[in-house]
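pipeline stage [seq->struct] | target=Radical SAM protein | organism=Halotia branconii CENA392 | residues=530
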Amino acid sequence: MEIKTLMIENRILYVRLPCNPIFPIGVVYLADHVHKQFPGIEQRIFDLGTVPPLDYASALDDCIDEFKPTLLVFSWRDIQIYAPVGGRGGNPLQNAFELYYAKNPLIKLRGALGGLRIFIAYYAELWRNQGLIKRGLKRAQKYHDNARAVVGGGAVSVFYEQLGKSLPPGTIISVGEGETLLEKLLSGDEFQDERCYVVGETQPRNRLIHEQPTPLEKTACNYDYIEGIWPEFNYYLQEQDFYIGVQTKRGCPHNCCYCVYTVVEGKQVRINPADEVVAEMRQLYDRGIRNFWFTDAQFIPARKFIDDAIELLQKIVDSGMTDIHWAAYIRADNLTPQLCELMAKTGMNYFEIGITSGSQELVRKMRMGYNLRTVLQNCRDLKAAGFNDLVSVNYSFNVIDERLETIRQTIAYHRELERIFGVDKVEPAIFFIGLQPHTHLEEYAFKEGILKPGYDPMSLMPWTAKKLLWNPEPLGSFFGEVCLQAWRQNPNDFGREVMKILEEKLGCADLEAALSAPIDTKEKQLAGIS
């Protein structure tokens, strides 16, 4: 690997802003890449996810005082407005549905108060993280006048246009991957051809997020080095059931109408060499890790990548790491009997499939590219191969042309998955789509006048939030009532209770109807919203 020359002496402090205790693989990979390009550079990782909330500011001050960085790289992972389960201050979906759909005034009031708590917590987090960035930069500039900040991460990649209005002038806002941006910045080269812009100096290019990332050859992360620059590293090794992230590829080639992954990571799928992935896993394995999460947007994004997945899993078998478990998001339409055998053999003990609907008609309209019949057959192959663990199936009701018959089809499809894996092994995760910037769904909302260009997608104001939580009439109220009933009856098993109530109310279609989709010669349309 080519070793780059530094134009100035740099000391880089990576600050992972507070979030749930999820292994900060993005920061780790950035630091590892910079070290390989500039082995003489001093780096430190500081993870606020391991710090008590009352100590955020003082801990950041102490770290900066000790390390005296010239460059602060902030990683901002989450700006999660809607969630189907408990999040900041409560369950956002439940609060919203109680406020919008409950008939009992007391329940409606409870939803309003719960929503207010989430509203306050949400904006408090935004202000806190912006404050930490400003505080850290100002502190670093006490030691180096020219210290500057780079801000990136999942949240920034989606809301990069909005965040630029509230960050310090001179801050570099990075969209998507940051390795080549940091390379150019550290070398003193022009870097603004990367997916980034500088607050107060430049404006983000039109459709910046849709530009393709710079290709990058990924090698195994050097965890001996990472352990030396990250004092909190062992925090993530203490619990034996903790899943540690490993990336096997980047990019997603699909066009799902509501998903922002394909623009953040780019449509070009870039495979990490299997030997490098296994070498990285081996380093973690030797430190006691037995549970791995493959952090790809999709572990097998398309059939053309099946051979790559087979190669990787076979090399895991050959490595002798026989007592591991792993999990991933998987497009189950891309499985083969050989791949199923290897998945079971290598210890896959959980996977998620986001089919969104059990109606082939709706899957087609959402541009998801799934063949639901193929998914079922591949699930049967996986079961036959010996897989006997948990499957999480994501359903997003009421997105595009949903009607009572397509709901019945989804129920039929879900019951067939239960027959394949077992009722206790199939967990329905019930989502209602939060409209994201830069998606086909947002374009449709502009076209139909549902949203106006220039709206604030980070707003949690009620008049914006109800439009962004995609649950259109005429079925919106129906789904609201069903979900409220499920929370009353069985809040600890919400997904299964929703499916049970829907079947009691509507019945179950014939499975063949779910798997068949008549060709619609009319122009494809997305559902409206009230």
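stage status: PASS
auto-comment: Residues 105-143 form the longest helix (39 residues). The CA atoms of residues 372 and 515 lie 6 Å apart.
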